[in-house]
Each structure stands twice: as C-alpha cells, then as structure tokens.
C-alpha cells in the first residue's frame, strides 16, 4: 500500500526561539540555546520542530516583521549556527520547519524602504499603495488585527499603504509577479539549506480583492471584544488568487521531495479545507485546524467539532490538531491543570498531525505579566481588551536550582512562570506522575500503535462530560474515553487499559474526575 509521509505519523513541536534557551546571556533565547536542548526535544518523542521566525527583524512584532528573508537575526545567531542546528536536528531524526512570513515584511526591509521612497520607485508596486478615499481619509474601512485602520498615510509620497497587522508590517503585493518570484526564491534558499518545510504565516491574507471594496459589517460584532471583529474580512482575505499561489508554493516544495507546508489559516471548515487543494492542484499539506483553540472545552462541543471537521476533509486530506501557540492563551490557563492532562490525551489520540506548543508539556498555566513588563504590541496598542500574548511566550523553566530557571544567566525578556521553582523540566523528569511524563507516555504509545498514528476515527459518544471515540487500524481497535468534568462518571471498562491520565487504574466501572483513558479492545474480527 501507500507509505505515509513522515508528517502524517509525525508530531510537530513549536519552539518560540526568544523563550526556549538563552546561550549568550542577553535574556533572549537563541539558536545555540535550541541546539543545546535538542536532546530534551528528542526525548519528548516528537518528530519535527517548528521555529517561530528567526530572520533579521526590528522585532516590532517579535520576528513576524522580517527585514531580510534570507539571513538569521543576529540576536538569534548566525547562518552557520542555523546550519549547525539543522544538522544537529537531523542527526537526532528531527525535522526542522521554519516560519515563512509572506504576507508582510518589516517597514525596514530594503524592499519597502525603496517602495515608499517615491511613487516612481522601482519597488513601489511591491507593496499595496492607494490614494485617499472619497472623504479624504483611508481608501476603505479595513481594520488592522492590532487595532485601527489597516491603512497608514505616507506623507512623503502622498499615498496610503496597507498593513493587516502593525504599521511596521506593510503588506506585500502578491499580485506582482516580481514579488512572487522573489518570495519563491526565499523558499528555495531555505529548502537548499535542508529545511524540511514551512509554517506559512497568515496564508489566507496574502491576496486582497481588486479595487479594495469596503468589508461588510459583521452583524454579531457587538458580542465580541473590540473593533477588530466589527467587519467580516470578506475582501481583505481568502481570495481565489491566493489559492493559485499556495499551489505554486506546493509545487516548489514537492520538487524537493518530502517537504511539508503548514498554512496558518483562520476560516470555517468549508473554506479552511479548500486550502488542501485537490489531486490536480494540491495546495498546503496541512491547513492549520484551530477548532480546539476557538471552541469551548465541552464534550458535546468537541464531539461535534471533530465530526464536522472529519466530514469537511477532502478525499486524501490529512487532518491536524492544535490547542496552543505563541498567540493563544495556554491550555492549562484555559481549562486548569487537571483537565489539561485530559486535553493532552485528546490532542495525541485524535486522527491527524498534532502540533504541541513549548511549555504546555509542563502544564504551565496563567502567567501574570506586570504592567511594566508587557511587550506584546497587540496588547500595548489596545490595552484592556485581553488581546495580549505575552503570557504564553514566557521562557522555558528548565530547573528550579539555577537563577532564572536555567533559561538565562540574566533577567529574561519576559518573566518566568511564577511557579518555576517547582514547575520545571528537571522536577518533572524526576516525577513519573508529571505532565511531562504523561506527554512522553502518550507520544511513545502513538509511536507503538498504528491505530493512534494513522487509524480511522469513529465517534462513540459525546454527552454530559463524557467523550468517547475509537481509533481503528486493520484489526486493531483502541478506545479513548475522556471525562471532561470533575465528577465521577459511569463507564464500562472493557479491554485492557493502556494509559490513564491519573497514572493508575480504577477498580470499578467508572471514569474518575478529570480522568482520560486509552483502552485496547483487542483484535476485532
Ligand atoms: O498570527 C495571525 C493571526 O491572525 C492571529 O493574530 C490571529 O488573528 C489571532 O491569534 C486569532 O485570535 C500570525 C502570528 O502567529 C502572529 O504572532 C503575528 O503577530 C501575526 O501573524 C502577524 O504576522
């Protein structure tokens, strides 16, 4: 039969480079630091690491504002450090994915410096410029993800430029073939250096409707936080031309063999799944599925969203799941540590490629960031809306026995989790009942059991606090039963229990509070 590509069996681990390991005592993590910690990552049992952006950047949005797509930010190291990191990862059987940020560059990128110099600049059309609208204000009503208009007036050249995010992140004009060619060259540059793929930042944003029509008003916006949700991004995102570009990126990736493209796309299932493309014109391998980030932690909701997503997948489309990132509140902060153990079991037993976020394997919860240490521009621009992301970007706590948890020799750029002296890698490695060991056990089981890695999904029940589903491969059938609540619930324990989130086995037909189990129903005829 067909041999599945590595990323179908694989598990991705997201590293936020600023906060993984500092090797040179500046309070910010770096590539050498990541290299020093690769044994930890390999021992966890994941297959690939994805690095948030490591390119030269003024850091207005902590690397998502790229000033040079084909070099390494000095704060993170050199291109030689990068090559050594790739080699060291590959030696351990780990793939390495980079974060590609095609929608926008930094306003300090030489392309934009040239573009804004004058209306007649050679690279004027590499970005998106427009004259004022009829009322003399911005060309249309589009709103930035960081608050305010998406358009910034440029006094010197007498036009507005578009930025879907910060004004320091001008949107590139992907309708321009020279931009496309330059960006495909960027992908080649890193593929040639041995990179195994890309997570593509805000892929659904890269093309905008011609003529820049106003976005329609969102009838539900008053239910949501902030003016960002006031409009439906109909004309500013998800244009048909962007799919053709994704297909071109895929052709390029495929020309290198077994490389992976993960697209960051926030859309409802039907439009999300369109980004798989089809057999004749495949697009990204994995359009990120954020359903577990965007929905309530509730058995019925989850049962339904898994079924809906499975039903929306195109033939051959491989699923994926994620519940944490450098943008989202941490899973343990959202649902508490006891349920975060159940969530780990869910994420690592659903059908599809899971992406883990650094630190979630330690159960890090809410980290209070004192007002004077807030760094995230999304929070600084719109205080009080709860849009901050710093609290999921805090440094990895490696040990309770060294200053700054072994992350750095100096005060880190963001504070550590308040409980770092007890909640850290060293302590959890020494404690067989820790969250870290639960992740290791789950990842090891996934490797051993084809039903978990590649098997079919079959919903069994989703009611009250109880979520039950099966994973099936050939004659192998595993049942996953999760108690999403804090009260004991009846459950018939047939078969052999392979793993419980509580560590030991119950002696009655129940799921204990906050318990999830994986049972082996044995070979089925
Ligand atoms: O995030 C894009 C993005 O759309 C998120 O801000 C999203 O809107 C939000 O999380 C949904 O609640 C990516 C990066 O992951 C983020 O760190 C960058 O700031 C952003 O793109 C701009 O590059």
TrEMBL record:
CDD domains xref list: AmyAc_OligoGlu_like
An annotated Gene Ontology molecular function: alpha-amylase activity
Keywords: Glycosidase, Hydrolase
Keyword Hydrolase annotated: yes
Glycosyl hydrolase family 13 catalytic domain span: 14-393
GO biological process, one term: oligosaccharide catabolic process
A Pfam entry, by short name: Alpha-amylase
Keyword Hydrolase: yes
UniProt family annotation: Belongs to the glycosyl hydrolase 13 family.
Protein name stated in the entry: DUF3459 domain-containing protein
